[in-house]
């Protein structure tokens, strides 16, 4: 549905951005900084409430949100609660908190979905789970649920025995497959089909087993998922620096992927949101001015040289960062259009 491609990216981006900003907010409060405003949404303010010196506002455009921490965009001299007046560790903690909360969001989503829905594994038993349309097995008459007894006279006790028994066949040779169906044996001679990568295939897939997940299972698997996604994101960033466009998505790509996830169900949309959260969190740590990683590098550099950069230098640094981000955005958008 078209509505999925509109509402799903808004939902995913808003959850991810608000979690990121909430991380900055919590650490700013914890380190004694003055947070002037925490906003949900962008654009004109439509509602607000002030509590403990912070304005909490709701804005007209329901995408994302932001913090206004005193002293982040100016020195705010004389204010002991401003960002610029705090120690290196306090400022660093606030800057890195956004990405940290993105990782936590992804972890809790993964763990929650796994704990509620369980997880799936590929069965090792030689029972056909799926017969691929248009492939030799379907044309010969094999069916999902058939238990493979033997292939070319070789007994089959596990799914791996199937591929092992067909590995010596050449193109144009038939595999004799005996299956058990409803208590009866059925025999088929099947010509294998060569795939794009050169393998000879029957066109069958193993069955999938569903498992309930304990809390420890969910925590362990969620941790592994987070690590794997972060690794893949890092590899993607490295490839992008090298000029590769594979796997790079801009706003159109995000809308397409989130819409497709929403069409598959709310659980799939949550999993996409978790992956997006890890991607945005890691991207924010790149040492590019205006990103969290760039600000963190600036804080460390200022601690080494013993003084803050001048406003003029800061302006040039921010302009450079904005230019880099704009180029990346245009690059991603062009890739979206070419793949649309």
From TrEMBL:
Its main location: membrane. Keywords: Hydrolase, Membrane, Metalloprotease, Protease, Transmembrane, Transmembrane helix, Zinc. GO terms for cellular component: membrane. It is a multi-pass membrane protein. Coiled coil: none annotated. Its cofactor is Zn(2+). This is Zinc metalloprotease. SMART domains: PDZ. GO terms for molecular function: metalloendopeptidase activity. Residues 118-157 form the PDZ domain. InterPro entries: PDZ, PDZ_6, PDZ_sf, Pept_M50_Zn, Peptidase_M50. Pfam families: PDZ_6 (PF17820), Peptidase_M50 (PF02163). The chain crosses the membrane at residues 6-27, 93-116, 266-286, 315-334. GO terms for biological process: proteolysis. It is found in: Membrane. Belongs to the peptidase M50B family.
């Amino acid at each position: 549905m078209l509505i999925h491609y509109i509402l799903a990216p808004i939902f995913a981006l808003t959850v991810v951005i608000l979690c990121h900003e909430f991380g900055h907010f919590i650490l700013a409060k914890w380190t004694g900084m003055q947070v002037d405003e925490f906003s949900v949404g962008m654009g004109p303010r439509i509602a607000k409430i002030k509590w403990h010196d912070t304005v909490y506002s709701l804005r007209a455009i329901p995408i994302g949100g932001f913090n206004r921490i005193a002293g982040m965009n100016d020195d705010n001299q004389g204010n002991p609660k401003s960002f610029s007046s705090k120690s290196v560790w306090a400022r660093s903690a606030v800057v890195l908190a956004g990405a940290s909360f993105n990782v936590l969001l992804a972890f809790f989503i993964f763990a929650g979905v796994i704990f509620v829905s369980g997880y799936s594994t590929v069965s090792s038993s030689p029972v056909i789970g799926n017969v691929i349309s248009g492939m030799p097995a379907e044309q010969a008459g094999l069916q999902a649920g058939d238990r493979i007894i033997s292939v070319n006279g070789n007994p089959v006790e596990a799914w791996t025995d199937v591929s092992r028994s067909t590995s010596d066949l050449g193109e144009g040779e038939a595999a004799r497959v005996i299956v058990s169906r409803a208590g009866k044996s059925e025999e088929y001679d099947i010509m294998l089909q060569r795939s794009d990568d050169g393998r000879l295939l029957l066109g069958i897939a193993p069955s999938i087993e569903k498992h309930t997940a304990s809390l420890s299972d969910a925590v362990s698997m969620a941790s592994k998922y987070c690590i794997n996604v972060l690794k893949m994101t890092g590899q993607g960033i490295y490839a992008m620096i090298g000029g590769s466009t594979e796997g790079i998505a801009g706003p159109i790509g995000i809308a397409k992927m989130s819409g497709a996830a929403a069409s598959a169900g709310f659980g799939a949309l949550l999993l996409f949101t978790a992956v997006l959260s890890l991607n945005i969190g890691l991207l924010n740590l790149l040492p590019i001015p205006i990103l969290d990683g760039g600000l963190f590098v600036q804080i460390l550099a200022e601690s080494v040289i013993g003084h803050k950069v001048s406003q003029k230098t800061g302006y040039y640094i921010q302009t450079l960062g904005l230019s880099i981000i704009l180029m990346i955005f245009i690059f991603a958008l062009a890739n979206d259009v070419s793949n649309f």
